[in-house]
Every structure is written in C-alpha cells, then in structure tokens.
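Sequence in, structure out.
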Amino acid sequence: MSEQKRQHYVPIFYLKLFSTGREKRRISLFHLGQQRLIPDVKIVRQAYKDNFYGSDRVFEKAFGLIEGRSAEVISDMITNNNHPSYYTQEHHVILTFVTMLHARTLYSAEALNESVERTIKAIFSKDPRVKDHLDEVKVGLRNPAQWAVQNVASMIHIVADLGYKLLVNETTTPFLTSDHPVVFYNQFFETRRTWGSNTGLASKGLQIFLPLSPKHLIVFFDQDVYKMSGFFHRPVRLKDPMDIDQLNALQLVNAHTNLYFNQDISAEYIKSLFSQFSSFRRTTKSDVKEFVGGKNEKGYQQSLIQMSRRDVRCGLSLSCVTSTKEAKRFKLDNRAVYVRNETIMRVSDEFTSLVSAGKYKPGEFQKFFGEHYGSRFKK
C-alpha cells in the first residue's frame, strides 16, 4: 500500500540518468538546508510525497504515460548527441516533459500556495474585522500540485516557438540536478526589470534549462533575444569549466531541498559551489506588491495587488549565449508585461475560448491549430 501512495514529483527514470553505480538504483545527495552530503541513497526514496497528486492516482497514471515516451526521446538525445527536429512528435514530447516537470514538483506546489495565501491576506488586511487575526489562519489550495499541473498543461503550446539546443559537457566536471530541476530564467531582463516575474511561459527573453545527464543539458530560449553558438542542427559543446559551474549553480539556486549527482562530483566541489552561490537562493517563493491608486466615486481607496513568482537571479553568464541585434536595440517602455510572441498569444486566447465553449478539449491545441491555421507554427 505504501508503494502505491508514494508519488514521485521528479521521475525515477530521470534521476537514474544521474545515478551512482551500474544498477542505476542509487545516487549521491547534498541537503542544502543541513549542508550535508550523503554519497549513497536509494533513488526510490527521493523526491516523492504520499498521495501528492491525489489518492485516485489519475495524475500519477498520466505522468507514467508522459514519462515512458519522454524516457525514449531523452535516451535518443543522449545517445546521438542531438535534439529532435522542430515540430516533430519528439519535439512535442520533450517540450511537454520539461514544462510539466517544472509544474509538478513540491517547490511549485508550495510556491502556488504561498502566492495564494499572501494575496488573500493582502486583500483581507484592508478589512478591520479580520486584519488583526490573519496570522492565526492558514490559507491555501487543497491540492496545489493538481492546480499547478492543470494550469501548465493547457498552455504548453505557448512555448512551442522557443528555439532549443542540446549542450554537451566536454569538461571533467559533470552536470548535477535537483528536486526542482527545470530552471526558468531570463538573462535579458535580469538587470533591466528588477520587479515582478520575467519567466512566464509567454515572457520575452525566457530561457528554460534542464540537465539530462552528467554530460547533457537542454536549453530552450527566445530566438529574438539570444543566439546560441554552433550550427542550427548541431549541439553546443562546452569546454569551459566556468560554464559548467554556472549551469550547476542554477540547480543549486533553484532547488527545493536536495541536489543529486553521481560519484564523479566531489564533496569539495559541492561545498565550493554552495559557498559561491547559496546567497542567491530565494528566501520566498512569491512576491505580492500593492499599487495604491485614487479613491472611487464612493470614497473608497482603490489599489491593485500584483502576485508573481520569485524569479531565479544569479548573474548567469555563459560563453555560448550572446544577444541578438534586436535585443541590443530593445528599449523599455511602460508595459507591465513583455510578451514574446503576440501571434501565439492571440491564437492561444482563441483556443481557450473554444475550449470554454466545449468545442475542444484542453489537450487538443494541435488539433485546433491544424484545423484553423495549418500543420505548424509560423516562425
């Protein structure tokens, strides 16, 4: 019974790609809170929570289907040192796996609940009847992991326009991973916009990083903002150890509790990485900001409350990433949100309306797009 309740928010097959030993059953762990390295733990005992997605196992079964196909695609990428072609079934599979993995972790569930609680309490702090009692109550969603996954599952198509590259690590330092391994980042806006989140699925300048093995990492990126070294269809080969340190630092800063890695990473390396980058770890998972306006016709004070995720910001600098000419010419204006692809957003809104009208199911975006706009996105 306990085995059935155990639901992994980071798939076992994925952690096995970073495993220690031939049997692929064990892995090394560094607990960030305790600053403790444990060189040999069972993978099946990592990154799980009982009934995390619900006791009916509906989500767990759906994830099993996604993971099975994703494991095949990732294995092929690692074996052939290449990524799938654009708009193929394999492209959709890896895109689905990456975006869903970001949404399904314990960190994402806690971030959603934190956002909900801080927003609700910010609203009720204006009510004199309850404002002095808000610390006495806990506000949140009953199944935050389900909410997070369902929200992202209906919007995967929004990131289909991102370019992507496979990075091959040719140094002696392996990539490591974590219990929240998909990193959403935005080098472009990191120093330009210091408030709010710049890492929404539709954000201009979005980057998504996921290690696939000690020697492989996939990155998705806004092609209007960034250029990646190497030819279009070939992987980027990393030879500079500083690039590996930066990418490993992303995992340390983004992780919930644990880093995972194989036996080729030493305790000294982990401690050095922690010393350099632990100060960039987020102290909260969300930001809630109030913008006070004027009074309405009844004399009540008006205000706007903005809720956003707390972005990872650690001064990322990679030798293989440069800015496009368009990015260098870009000027900030007074927009609150900078959308990467207005066309995709308009199409997405149309699809959402048709889903609400019952003409399509949430997972039928490709069917909708094929029937209305052709077989693929125009770049």
